[in-house]
Design brief:
Length: about 475
Protein backbone atom coordinates (compact mmCIF):
# COMPACT_ATOMS: atom_id res chain seq x y z
CA UNK A 1 0.00 0.00 0.00
CA UNK A 2 2.76 2.42 0.93
CA UNK A 3 4.64 1.72 -2.36
CA UNK A 4 1.58 2.39 -4.42
CA UNK A 5 0.97 5.72 -2.73
CA UNK A 6 4.62 6.67 -3.23
CA UNK A 7 4.42 5.88 -6.95
CA UNK A 8 1.36 8.05 -7.38
CA UNK A 9 3.07 10.86 -5.53
CA UNK A 10 6.12 10.58 -7.82
CA UNK A 11 3.95 10.69 -10.92
CA UNK A 12 2.28 13.82 -9.60
CA UNK A 13 5.64 15.56 -9.07
CA UNK A 14 6.98 14.57 -12.51
CA UNK A 15 3.86 15.46 -14.44
CA UNK A 16 3.14 18.78 -12.69
CA UNK A 17 5.49 20.84 -14.95
CA UNK A 18 4.12 19.12 -18.03
CA UNK A 19 0.57 19.91 -17.01
CA UNK A 20 1.19 23.56 -17.75
CA UNK A 21 1.09 22.73 -21.46
CA UNK A 22 -2.37 22.55 -22.94
CA UNK A 23 -1.93 19.25 -24.77
CA UNK A 24 -0.90 17.19 -21.73
CA UNK A 25 -3.47 18.62 -19.29
CA UNK A 26 -6.00 15.82 -19.74
CA UNK A 27 -3.28 13.14 -19.48
CA UNK A 28 -2.09 14.68 -16.25
CA UNK A 29 -5.58 14.59 -14.79
CA UNK A 30 -6.04 10.92 -15.59
CA UNK A 31 -2.68 10.03 -14.01
CA UNK A 32 -3.10 12.05 -10.85
CA UNK A 33 -6.64 11.11 -9.81
CA UNK A 34 -7.24 7.42 -10.46
CA UNK A 35 -10.20 7.13 -8.06
CA UNK A 36 -10.14 3.37 -8.02
CA UNK A 37 -6.59 3.17 -6.67
CA UNK A 38 -6.39 6.14 -4.29
CA UNK A 39 -9.06 6.16 -1.61
CA UNK A 40 -10.08 9.53 -0.22
CA UNK A 41 -8.59 9.67 3.30
CA UNK A 42 -11.15 12.15 4.64
CA UNK A 43 -14.25 10.08 3.78
CA UNK A 44 -15.01 7.44 6.43
CA UNK A 45 -16.84 4.28 5.38
CA UNK A 46 -20.61 4.52 5.84
CA UNK A 47 -22.09 2.89 8.90
CA UNK A 48 -23.97 -0.33 8.26
CA UNK A 49 -26.79 1.06 10.42
CA UNK A 50 -27.41 4.10 8.19
CA UNK A 51 -30.11 3.43 5.57
CA UNK A 52 -29.40 4.77 2.09
CA UNK A 53 -32.15 5.67 -0.39
CA UNK A 54 -33.29 2.65 -2.38
CA UNK A 55 -31.15 0.21 -0.38
CA UNK A 56 -32.58 -2.51 1.91
CA UNK A 57 -32.99 -1.45 5.51
CA UNK A 58 -30.05 -2.53 7.71
CA UNK A 59 -30.49 -5.37 10.18
CA UNK A 60 -30.30 -2.93 13.07
CA UNK A 61 -33.37 -1.10 11.78
CA UNK A 62 -35.29 -4.38 11.52
CA UNK A 63 -34.27 -5.15 15.10
CA UNK A 64 -35.67 -1.78 16.21
CA UNK A 65 -38.92 -2.45 14.34
CA UNK A 66 -39.16 -5.93 15.92
CA UNK A 67 -38.64 -4.53 19.42
CA UNK A 68 -41.24 -1.83 18.80
CA UNK A 69 -43.68 -4.55 17.71
CA UNK A 70 -43.01 -6.52 20.90
CA UNK A 71 -43.50 -3.34 22.92
CA UNK A 72 -46.90 -2.61 21.36
CA UNK A 73 -47.99 -6.22 21.78
CA UNK A 74 -47.05 -6.32 25.48
CA UNK A 75 -48.53 -2.86 26.03
CA UNK A 76 -52.02 -3.99 25.03
CA UNK A 77 -51.66 -7.41 26.64
CA UNK A 78 -51.01 -5.76 30.00
CA UNK A 79 -53.79 -3.24 29.41
CA UNK A 80 -56.39 -5.94 28.73
CA UNK A 81 -55.56 -8.05 31.79
CA UNK A 82 -58.00 -6.20 34.05
CA UNK A 83 -61.00 -6.50 31.71
CA UNK A 84 -60.34 -10.20 31.05
CA UNK A 85 -60.07 -10.95 34.78
CA UNK A 86 -62.98 -8.66 35.72
CA UNK A 87 -65.22 -11.44 37.07
CA UNK A 88 -62.38 -13.01 39.06
CA UNK A 89 -61.23 -9.71 40.55
CA UNK A 90 -64.79 -8.68 41.48
CA UNK A 91 -65.04 -11.75 43.70
CA UNK A 92 -61.53 -11.28 45.14
CA UNK A 93 -61.84 -7.57 45.99
CA UNK A 94 -65.65 -7.47 46.37
CA UNK A 95 -66.44 -4.53 44.06
CA UNK A 96 -69.38 -3.89 41.73
CA UNK A 97 -69.61 -2.26 38.30
CA UNK A 98 -69.20 1.18 39.88
CA UNK A 99 -65.92 0.01 41.37
CA UNK A 100 -64.90 -1.33 37.98
CA UNK A 101 -65.68 2.08 36.43
CA UNK A 102 -63.39 3.60 39.05
CA UNK A 103 -60.58 1.28 37.96
CA UNK A 104 -61.12 2.30 34.33
CA UNK A 105 -60.99 5.98 35.30
CA UNK A 106 -57.84 5.34 37.35
CA UNK A 107 -56.22 4.13 34.13
CA UNK A 108 -57.68 6.61 31.63
CA UNK A 109 -57.14 9.93 33.44
CA UNK A 110 -53.35 9.61 33.80
CA UNK A 111 -53.27 7.96 30.36
CA UNK A 112 -54.74 11.07 28.71
CA UNK A 113 -52.53 13.45 30.71
CA UNK A 114 -49.36 11.49 30.09
CA UNK A 115 -49.98 11.35 26.34
CA UNK A 116 -49.02 15.03 26.35
CA UNK A 117 -46.39 14.89 29.09
CA UNK A 118 -44.88 11.74 27.63
CA UNK A 119 -44.46 13.45 24.27
CA UNK A 120 -42.54 16.27 25.93
CA UNK A 121 -40.32 13.75 27.75
CA UNK A 122 -39.54 11.95 24.50
CA UNK A 123 -38.68 15.18 22.68
CA UNK A 124 -36.39 16.14 25.54
CA UNK A 125 -34.58 12.85 26.19
CA UNK A 126 -35.00 10.85 22.99
CA UNK A 127 -36.47 7.41 22.45
CA UNK A 128 -33.73 5.35 24.10
CA UNK A 129 -34.05 6.61 27.67
CA UNK A 130 -37.74 7.49 27.57
CA UNK A 131 -38.89 4.20 26.04
CA UNK A 132 -36.79 2.21 28.50
CA UNK A 133 -38.33 4.09 31.44
CA UNK A 134 -41.87 3.78 30.09
CA UNK A 135 -41.62 0.02 29.44
CA UNK A 136 -39.98 -0.64 32.81
CA UNK A 137 -42.53 1.52 34.65
CA UNK A 138 -45.63 -0.06 33.16
CA UNK A 139 -44.14 -3.53 33.66
CA UNK A 140 -43.57 -2.81 37.35
CA UNK A 141 -47.10 -1.40 37.55
CA UNK A 142 -48.57 -4.54 36.00
CA UNK A 143 -46.65 -6.75 38.41
CA UNK A 144 -47.81 -4.59 41.33
CA UNK A 145 -51.38 -5.25 40.22
CA UNK A 146 -50.71 -8.92 40.83
CA UNK A 147 -49.45 -8.11 44.33
CA UNK A 148 -52.39 -5.85 45.26
CA UNK A 149 -54.22 -6.63 48.48
CA UNK A 150 -57.03 -4.10 48.13
CA UNK A 151 -59.06 -2.27 45.50
CA UNK A 152 -57.16 0.93 46.27
CA UNK A 153 -53.81 -0.75 45.64
CA UNK A 154 -55.11 -2.22 42.40
CA UNK A 155 -56.34 1.23 41.35
CA UNK A 156 -52.94 2.74 42.13
CA UNK A 157 -51.21 0.11 40.00
CA UNK A 158 -53.61 0.81 37.13
CA UNK A 159 -52.95 4.55 37.39
CA UNK A 160 -49.19 3.98 37.06
CA UNK A 161 -49.86 1.58 34.18
CA UNK A 162 -51.92 4.19 32.32
CA UNK A 163 -49.36 6.94 32.85
CA UNK A 164 -46.45 4.82 31.59
CA UNK A 165 -48.25 3.17 28.69
CA UNK A 166 -49.33 6.49 27.17
CA UNK A 167 -45.76 7.72 26.78
CA UNK A 168 -44.87 4.67 24.71
CA UNK A 169 -46.64 5.88 21.57
CA UNK A 170 -44.84 9.24 21.21
CA UNK A 171 -41.63 7.24 21.75
CA UNK A 172 -42.64 4.98 18.84
CA UNK A 173 -42.84 8.09 16.66
CA UNK A 174 -39.40 9.37 17.71
CA UNK A 175 -37.76 5.96 17.25
CA UNK A 176 -39.11 5.50 13.72
CA UNK A 177 -38.07 9.02 12.70
CA UNK A 178 -34.59 8.47 14.15
CA UNK A 179 -33.99 5.10 12.49
CA UNK A 180 -36.02 4.95 9.26
CA UNK A 181 -35.66 7.24 6.19
CA UNK A 182 -38.72 9.19 5.02
CA UNK A 183 -39.49 6.98 2.03
CA UNK A 184 -39.75 3.89 4.29
CA UNK A 185 -41.44 5.35 7.39
CA UNK A 186 -45.06 4.63 6.53
CA UNK A 187 -44.24 0.98 5.87
CA UNK A 188 -42.19 0.68 9.08
CA UNK A 189 -44.96 2.32 11.11
CA UNK A 190 -47.54 0.05 9.49
CA UNK A 191 -45.55 -3.00 10.60
CA UNK A 192 -45.45 -1.74 14.19
CA UNK A 193 -49.04 -0.51 14.45
CA UNK A 194 -50.76 -3.96 14.28
CA UNK A 195 -48.83 -5.01 17.38
CA UNK A 196 -51.42 -3.40 19.64
CA UNK A 197 -54.26 -5.08 17.74
CA UNK A 198 -52.62 -8.48 17.98
CA UNK A 199 -51.89 -7.87 21.66
CA UNK A 200 -55.57 -7.22 22.29
CA UNK A 201 -56.62 -10.26 20.23
CA UNK A 202 -54.10 -12.55 21.93
CA UNK A 203 -54.81 -11.29 25.44
CA UNK A 204 -57.93 -13.38 26.26
CA UNK A 205 -56.41 -16.82 25.59
CA UNK A 206 -52.99 -15.89 27.01
CA UNK A 207 -54.33 -14.32 30.21
CA UNK A 208 -56.78 -17.20 30.66
CA UNK A 209 -53.96 -19.75 30.28
CA UNK A 210 -51.72 -17.89 32.73
CA UNK A 211 -54.56 -17.68 35.24
CA UNK A 212 -55.29 -21.40 34.98
CA UNK A 213 -51.64 -22.38 35.40
CA UNK A 214 -50.32 -19.64 37.71
CA UNK A 215 -53.40 -18.01 39.34
CA UNK A 216 -54.69 -14.53 38.56
CA UNK A 217 -51.70 -12.96 40.32
CA UNK A 218 -49.32 -14.75 38.00
CA UNK A 219 -51.27 -13.40 35.01
CA UNK A 220 -50.21 -9.90 36.14
CA UNK A 221 -46.69 -10.69 37.38
CA UNK A 222 -45.24 -12.82 34.56
CA UNK A 223 -45.95 -10.28 31.77
CA UNK A 224 -44.45 -7.65 34.08
CA UNK A 225 -41.21 -9.63 34.32
CA UNK A 226 -41.14 -10.06 30.53
CA UNK A 227 -41.60 -6.31 30.18
CA UNK A 228 -38.52 -5.61 32.30
CA UNK A 229 -36.49 -7.88 30.02
CA UNK A 230 -37.89 -6.02 27.01
CA UNK A 231 -36.89 -2.67 28.55
CA UNK A 232 -33.35 -3.96 28.99
CA UNK A 233 -33.23 -5.14 25.36
CA UNK A 234 -34.44 -1.75 24.14
CA UNK A 235 -31.79 0.09 26.16
CA UNK A 236 -28.99 -1.84 24.47
CA UNK A 237 -30.54 -1.85 20.97
CA UNK A 238 -31.52 1.81 20.57
CA UNK A 239 -28.00 3.22 20.24
CA UNK A 240 -26.50 5.17 17.37
CA UNK A 241 -29.70 6.08 15.52
CA UNK A 242 -28.72 7.83 12.24
CA UNK A 243 -30.93 10.90 12.72
CA UNK A 244 -30.78 11.19 16.52
CA UNK A 245 -27.70 13.42 16.68
CA UNK A 246 -29.19 15.86 14.17
CA UNK A 247 -32.47 16.00 16.09
CA UNK A 248 -30.64 16.65 19.36
CA UNK A 249 -28.49 19.38 17.79
CA UNK A 250 -31.64 21.23 16.73
CA UNK A 251 -32.59 21.46 20.41
CA UNK A 252 -35.81 20.58 22.21
CA UNK A 253 -38.69 22.90 21.34
CA UNK A 254 -40.70 24.64 24.03
CA UNK A 255 -44.27 23.50 24.51
CA UNK A 256 -45.38 26.95 23.38
CA UNK A 257 -43.64 26.37 20.04
CA UNK A 258 -45.49 23.08 19.68
CA UNK A 259 -48.84 24.73 20.40
CA UNK A 260 -48.13 27.55 17.93
CA UNK A 261 -47.72 25.08 15.05
CA UNK A 262 -50.94 25.76 13.12
CA UNK A 263 -50.64 22.63 10.95
CA UNK A 264 -50.71 20.52 14.11
CA UNK A 265 -54.09 21.88 15.15
CA UNK A 266 -55.66 20.86 11.88
CA UNK A 267 -54.65 17.26 12.59
CA UNK A 268 -55.74 17.59 16.23
CA UNK A 269 -59.19 18.82 15.18
CA UNK A 270 -59.55 16.13 12.52
CA UNK A 271 -58.53 13.32 14.86
CA UNK A 272 -60.70 14.76 17.63
CA UNK A 273 -63.67 14.48 15.28
CA UNK A 274 -62.86 11.02 13.92
CA UNK A 275 -61.40 9.13 16.90
CA UNK A 276 -64.80 8.67 18.62
CA UNK A 277 -65.76 6.30 15.78
CA UNK A 278 -62.93 3.96 16.75
CA UNK A 279 -63.56 4.20 20.48
CA UNK A 280 -67.24 3.45 19.93
CA UNK A 281 -66.36 0.36 17.90
CA UNK A 282 -63.80 -0.69 20.50
CA UNK A 283 -66.19 -0.49 23.46
CA UNK A 284 -69.64 -1.08 21.95
CA UNK A 285 -69.40 -3.40 18.93
CA UNK A 286 -68.77 -6.58 20.97
CA UNK A 287 -71.93 -5.93 22.98
CA UNK A 288 -73.86 -5.02 19.82
CA UNK A 289 -72.97 -8.33 18.18
CA UNK A 290 -74.02 -10.27 21.27
CA UNK A 291 -77.21 -8.34 22.02
CA UNK A 292 -78.53 -7.70 18.50
CA UNK A 293 -77.17 -10.66 16.52
CA UNK A 294 -77.24 -13.23 19.33
CA UNK A 295 -73.56 -14.19 19.38
CA UNK A 296 -72.32 -16.16 22.36
CA UNK A 297 -69.03 -15.24 24.01
CA UNK A 298 -67.34 -18.17 22.25
CA UNK A 299 -68.75 -17.10 18.87
CA UNK A 300 -67.64 -13.54 19.48
CA UNK A 301 -64.13 -14.76 20.18
CA UNK A 302 -64.15 -16.78 16.98
CA UNK A 303 -65.00 -13.81 14.71
CA UNK A 304 -64.04 -10.75 16.76
CA UNK A 305 -60.50 -10.66 15.41
CA UNK A 306 -61.56 -10.45 11.75
CA UNK A 307 -62.12 -6.65 11.43
CA UNK A 308 -58.90 -5.56 13.16
CA UNK A 309 -56.59 -8.11 11.54
CA UNK A 310 -58.08 -7.43 8.09
CA UNK A 311 -57.64 -3.70 8.64
CA UNK A 312 -54.01 -4.19 9.67
CA UNK A 313 -53.19 -6.12 6.48
CA UNK A 314 -54.87 -3.51 4.27
CA UNK A 315 -53.12 -0.65 6.06
CA UNK A 316 -49.69 -2.28 5.65
CA UNK A 317 -50.34 -2.51 1.91
CA UNK A 318 -51.54 1.11 1.82
CA UNK A 319 -48.44 2.25 3.70
CA UNK A 320 -46.20 0.49 1.19
CA UNK A 321 -47.98 2.23 -1.68
CA UNK A 322 -47.58 5.70 -0.14
CA UNK A 323 -43.90 5.01 0.53
CA UNK A 324 -43.49 4.08 -3.13
CA UNK A 325 -45.04 7.41 -4.13
CA UNK A 326 -42.61 9.28 -1.90
CA UNK A 327 -39.65 7.26 -3.23
CA UNK A 328 -40.67 8.21 -6.79
CA UNK A 329 -40.44 11.87 -5.87
CA UNK A 330 -44.11 12.64 -5.20
CA UNK A 331 -44.94 15.17 -2.52
CA UNK A 332 -44.70 13.37 0.88
CA UNK A 333 -47.53 15.27 2.56
CA UNK A 334 -49.95 14.77 -0.33
CA UNK A 335 -49.02 11.09 -0.39
CA UNK A 336 -49.69 10.64 3.33
CA UNK A 337 -53.05 12.43 3.07
CA UNK A 338 -54.27 9.59 0.84
CA UNK A 339 -54.63 7.53 4.05
CA UNK A 340 -57.16 10.02 5.37
CA UNK A 341 -59.09 10.60 2.15
CA UNK A 342 -59.48 6.84 1.63
CA UNK A 343 -60.78 6.40 5.17
CA UNK A 344 -63.24 9.26 4.73
CA UNK A 345 -64.68 7.55 1.64
CA UNK A 346 -65.11 4.20 3.43
CA UNK A 347 -66.41 5.31 6.84
CA UNK A 348 -69.97 6.41 5.87
CA UNK A 349 -70.91 2.83 5.01
CA UNK A 350 -71.10 2.25 8.77
CA UNK A 351 -74.53 3.90 8.73
CA UNK A 352 -75.89 0.67 7.23
CA UNK A 353 -74.75 -1.53 10.12
CA UNK A 354 -78.14 -1.83 11.81
CA UNK A 355 -79.68 -2.88 8.46
CA UNK A 356 -77.38 -5.90 8.08
CA UNK A 357 -79.55 -9.00 7.57
CA UNK A 358 -77.02 -11.44 9.01
CA UNK A 359 -73.68 -11.78 10.77
CA UNK A 360 -71.61 -11.96 7.56
CA UNK A 361 -72.92 -8.63 6.26
CA UNK A 362 -72.58 -7.01 9.69
CA UNK A 363 -68.96 -8.16 9.95
CA UNK A 364 -68.25 -6.84 6.46
CA UNK A 365 -69.62 -3.40 7.33
CA UNK A 366 -67.82 -3.33 10.68
CA UNK A 367 -64.58 -4.37 8.96
CA UNK A 368 -64.88 -1.57 6.39
CA UNK A 369 -65.32 1.04 9.14
CA UNK A 370 -62.43 -0.50 11.07
CA UNK A 371 -60.25 -0.16 7.97
CA UNK A 372 -61.26 3.52 7.74
CA UNK A 373 -60.34 4.14 11.38
CA UNK A 374 -57.04 2.30 11.10
CA UNK A 375 -56.09 4.21 7.93
CA UNK A 376 -56.36 7.40 9.96
CA UNK A 377 -54.32 5.97 12.83
CA UNK A 378 -51.68 4.51 10.50
CA UNK A 379 -51.47 7.72 8.48
CA UNK A 380 -50.98 10.13 11.38
CA UNK A 381 -47.40 9.12 12.22
CA UNK A 382 -45.98 9.38 8.66
CA UNK A 383 -47.87 12.65 8.07
CA UNK A 384 -46.42 14.26 11.20
CA UNK A 385 -42.95 12.95 10.39
CA UNK A 386 -43.03 14.56 6.94
CA UNK A 387 -44.89 17.73 7.89
CA UNK A 388 -43.45 18.86 11.24
CA UNK A 389 -39.88 19.30 12.53
CA UNK A 390 -38.52 16.10 14.08
CA UNK A 391 -37.79 17.83 17.39
CA UNK A 392 -41.51 18.44 18.09
CA UNK A 393 -42.93 15.23 16.59
CA UNK A 394 -43.31 13.29 19.82
CA UNK A 395 -45.00 16.23 21.57
CA UNK A 396 -47.32 16.72 18.60
CA UNK A 397 -48.18 13.03 18.58
CA UNK A 398 -48.94 13.20 22.30
CA UNK A 399 -51.29 16.17 21.91
CA UNK A 400 -53.18 14.40 19.12
CA UNK A 401 -53.48 11.16 21.09
CA UNK A 402 -54.70 12.92 24.23
CA UNK A 403 -57.29 14.95 22.35
CA UNK A 404 -58.57 11.93 20.42
CA UNK A 405 -58.84 9.83 23.57
CA UNK A 406 -60.72 12.65 25.33
CA UNK A 407 -63.33 13.07 22.62
CA UNK A 408 -63.63 9.29 22.42
CA UNK A 409 -64.43 9.09 26.11
CA UNK A 410 -66.97 11.92 25.84
CA UNK A 411 -68.80 10.11 23.06
CA UNK A 412 -68.83 6.87 25.01
CA UNK A 413 -70.38 8.60 28.01
CA UNK A 414 -73.08 10.00 25.70
CA UNK A 415 -73.59 6.81 23.68
CA UNK A 416 -75.37 4.88 26.44
CA UNK A 417 -78.30 7.30 26.93
CA UNK A 418 -78.62 7.88 23.16
CA UNK A 419 -78.80 4.14 22.45
CA UNK A 420 -81.33 3.63 25.25
CA UNK A 421 -83.61 6.41 24.01
CA UNK A 422 -83.10 6.41 20.23
CA UNK A 423 -81.38 3.15 19.36
CA UNK A 424 -78.16 2.11 17.65
CA UNK A 425 -79.24 3.39 14.21
CA UNK A 426 -78.98 7.04 15.29
CA UNK A 427 -75.48 6.52 16.70
CA UNK A 428 -74.22 4.65 13.63
CA UNK A 429 -75.73 7.30 11.36
CA UNK A 430 -74.08 10.14 13.26
CA UNK A 431 -70.70 8.41 13.38
CA UNK A 432 -70.82 7.87 9.61
CA UNK A 433 -70.50 11.63 9.09
CA UNK A 434 -67.47 12.23 11.28
CA UNK A 435 -64.66 11.02 9.01
CA UNK A 436 -65.82 13.02 5.96
CA UNK A 437 -66.16 16.16 8.10
CA UNK A 438 -62.73 15.51 9.65
CA UNK A 439 -61.22 15.01 6.17
CA UNK A 440 -62.59 18.41 5.13
CA UNK A 441 -61.01 19.98 8.22
CA UNK A 442 -57.72 18.30 7.35
CA UNK A 443 -57.87 19.52 3.76
CA UNK A 444 -58.62 23.11 4.81
CA UNK A 445 -55.88 23.17 7.46
CA UNK A 446 -53.13 21.55 5.40
CA UNK A 447 -53.76 21.54 1.65
CA UNK A 448 -55.60 24.85 1.39
CA UNK A 449 -53.13 26.46 3.80
CA UNK A 450 -50.18 25.22 1.72
CA UNK A 451 -51.75 26.67 -1.42
CA UNK A 452 -52.28 30.04 0.24
CA UNK A 453 -48.69 29.97 1.49
CA UNK A 454 -47.42 29.14 -2.01
CA UNK A 455 -49.50 31.96 -3.54
CA UNK A 456 -47.90 34.42 -1.10
CA UNK A 457 -44.45 33.10 -1.99
CA UNK A 458 -43.68 32.04 1.58
CA UNK A 459 -41.41 29.00 2.23
CA UNK A 460 -43.18 25.82 3.34
CA UNK A 461 -41.48 24.13 6.27
CA UNK A 462 -41.32 20.37 6.06
CA UNK A 463 -40.08 18.07 8.81
Amino acid sequence: MFGARGSVGAIAVIVRPLSETRGLRSLTTSLIVPSSSVPHPARPPPSSDVPTPGAPLPRKVWLIVALLFCTGFLNYLDRQTLSILKATLKSVFDFDDSGYSTLIAAFMVPYIIMYVVGGRIVDRFGSRLSMTVFIASWSVANALGGLAQSLGQLGGARALLGAAEAGTFPAFQRAIISWVPSERRAFAMSLVAPSTTLGAVAAPPLIAALTLHLSWRGAFILPGVLGLLLALAWWFADRGAPAEAEIRESGAASFGEVLRERRLWGVVAARGLSDPVWYFHLFWIPGYLQERLGLSLAQLGAVGWIPTVTASVICIAAAHLTDQRVARGRDPISSRLLFFYSGAVLAPIGALTTLAPNLAVALLLITIVTVACQLWFFGTGPLLADMLPARINASAFGVIGAFGASTGLILNFAAGPIIEQLGYAVVFGGLALLHPIAALVLWLSIVADRRRTADRGEPQAVG
